[in-house]
Sequence to fold (271 residues):
Amino acid sequence: MNDNEHKRKLTASRDILLNVALNPHNPKFLSLPQHEVLRAKIFRSENNNKQKKFIRYKRGTIVFIHFGINTGTEFSNSHFGIVLDKDDHPKQGKLTILPLTSKSGKQNISIGKAIFSGIMNDAEKQVKKMQEILNMTFDLERLHYSLPKPPSHFHMGENHPNYKDWHEYYNRHDPDGKHIPVANVTIKQWIQSDLDKINHLKKLYRNYNKVSYAKIDSITSVSKLKIAKPINDLDPVGKIQLSKETMDEIDQALARKLLSGPWRRVDKQTE
Fold:
């Protein structure tokens, strides 16, 4: 097939999609334009870069996936999902995903507000950790307040009980060691920046303060290229995991849906 034939077919495809997008008789096609742009960008990235390694996800991790607009009743649009793979690794480019929805259904399993509470709990932990670090700088300033010239830089010895938390926080903000020693005013700027990021996350995820349901009948294989990138470096989505109890309940539901034979033994073994 020559270049002209490629162009003819792609132009025909474009015209069909444009007509569907401008005359949608199905609600899912309302978001067709944005999903087609995203799909085109993924294709471009995949064509230009051969990705050798991917992020490794643990079983039960909550991710946000751009499923795209699919055929018929196949799952479409962008949704949260649960990673089901037990042995994911960096060279594996796809995941088995159990999509989540806000709508209840006969075959849907409620996971409560696990997504929202997981995000908010992580945010509160981050805020608490930053407050502890901020208190360290205040303690240092108070300790040396009587000195002729209070120190302008922060230093903590390895024997300090909070050294590990401080070291992790410092390395995240200054991995190249440009701020050695780090000025107190710089630490406060880092903390304010992080608090702004957390407040931004809370605002964006506020709409997910609702019960979510796992769609047992929509389990699917998804390319890792369709998984949304973190909103910022404090975004917990892609890291937070569902509890073992919730995953056990999902396993039982999947067995009832997908396996033939005496699947009830699965329930009895977990009682």
